[in-house]
Amino acid sequence: MIEVLQYEFMRNALLAGLLASVACGIIGTYVIVKRMAFISGGVAHASFGGIGLGYFFGINPILGALSFTIGSALVMGVVTKRTRLPEDTAIGILWALGMALGVIFVFLTPGYPPDLFGYLFGNILTVPASDLVIMLILDVIIILVVYLLYKEFLALSFDEEFGKVAGIPVERLYLTLLCLIALTVVVLIRVVGLILVIALLTIPAAMARQYTYSLKKVMLLAGLIGAAFTVSGLWLSYALDLPSGATIILVGGVSFLISFGFSRARLKREHRRKVSSSNTRT
Amino acid sequence: MDDKEAIRFNGVWVYYDGVPVLKDISFSIAEHDFLGIIGPNGGGKTTLLKVVLGLITPSRGRVSVLGQSPERSHHQIGYVPQYSLFDRDFPISVWETVLMGRWDKKGLFRRYGEEDKKAVHQALKTLGMLDYQKQQVGKLSGGEQQRVFIARALVSEPKLLLLDEPTASVDSAIQSDFYELLADLKQRVTIVLVSHDISAVSIHVDKIACLNRRLFYHGSKEVSAETLESTYACPVQMIAHGTIPHRVLKEHPHDD
What we know:
The complex is a heterodimer of chains A (282) and B (256).
Chain A: H1 8-33, H2 37-57, H3 61-82, H4 87-108, H5 116-121, H6 129-148, H7 150-158, H8 160-166, H9 170-192, H10 197-208, H11 215-240, H12 244-281
Chain B: E1 5-16, E2 19-30, E3 34-38, H1 45-53, E4 60-65, H2 70-73, E5 77-80, H3 94-99, H4 103-106, H5 114-126, H6 142-154, E6 160-164, H7 172-185, E7 190-195, E8 207-212, E9 214-218, H8 225-232
Parallel strand pairs in B: 3-7, 3-8, 5-6, 6-7
Antiparallel strand pairs in B: 1-2, 1-4, 8-9
Helix pairs in contact in B: 5-6
């Protein structure tokens, strides 16, 4: 494993995986506790519109995705909060609309678009250094905003109604959180692709929360779990010559099932212990 | 100046999609009163609390809370929502939950400080929950969770405490503890408690109102079976324990 790091693309891939796990650890935790997986999926898929836009105007598709994803996150947030459309309906419509726009833009671009598959399903082995810089900047923004707004995001996720009563600007904070999800999506696109992004936003945090009930520790643990997934998935995909994005997700999915089984068994054991100790008392 | 008004409603109407949820509500309570509002589910109890909190603006009528508009007085109100609504798996401790109640003393971007910690410590002590401060809120029993949410409401040092269905899914042994607690708190704050559960409104309540879209306000806490029947719009069995005085009140003017 060590010797493959002499290749620059391997070093970049490893760095990309680690940068991605920072974002998915922090923001994935909010996605899980505030139950925002579906809207995150919508934002991730709509980002394809931005990729297409990037191709069409001849700019870096990641930058196209960045602006488009933030835009679609804000639209989804405002539509779900302010209109009477059911939330899942609104998200479903915008989800498909974003993708359709992407397809049209790609179609209108002269010539054959290179590596579209990489944006859809990820290709961590072809991440250029310039994209690593973008990922690093987005990670720094995410950490900074969450650091500054930690107590507000906690109130928003736990009890939005109470937040409103206390005078917290919950709608603006919700939109801010959606923008952070949009940034995370962009960070993750290079690693696992926009279709698989939702797995890295949910699996590490969902696993982490089985082991701790402190939100900060869930974030930290989810980041570490995400790093373990990307590094081991990357290694497996290299060793078995499989697509990297899908391998990372499969490693995550299998780990989640195992961890879920263990935590169920643990809960059952605790339950039995409680029952037997209350039996001995009587 | 002991009899300052805590809440005054003047001909308040609230509509949802053209359907009136609150009809022509008028009442007032003085500071340090303990008002119990009972009525069936869907009778507008939570809506009424949300009007007091300034979360819902009435379609017609005037509301003043602690002498100001609800929007301006909300930071003096402690609110205990129906606690059954939160996610039991949420990774948050008792301490963090109560600390949240200090938000409006801080505002955006500012960290909680020593003063906030002291206030949380004090509130948890008042409610006998200090030993539970590190535990996860969702893992506590119903009665303990209720205490945590009251602590969160009290930690902002409110003048008015609103409780929405506080005795739902709490067993009766804990309920009586709970009323003793409220009787203590009554010395410091005005309390409004809403419930669909008639037995929730006990001897500690000073005043009773019955709410089913319209509000029937009784200056004192005597309620008859007839009163309850016209509120619930169906026959009600009166089950009362202990020392609730029974007295027949004048009948409400019937709706429509």
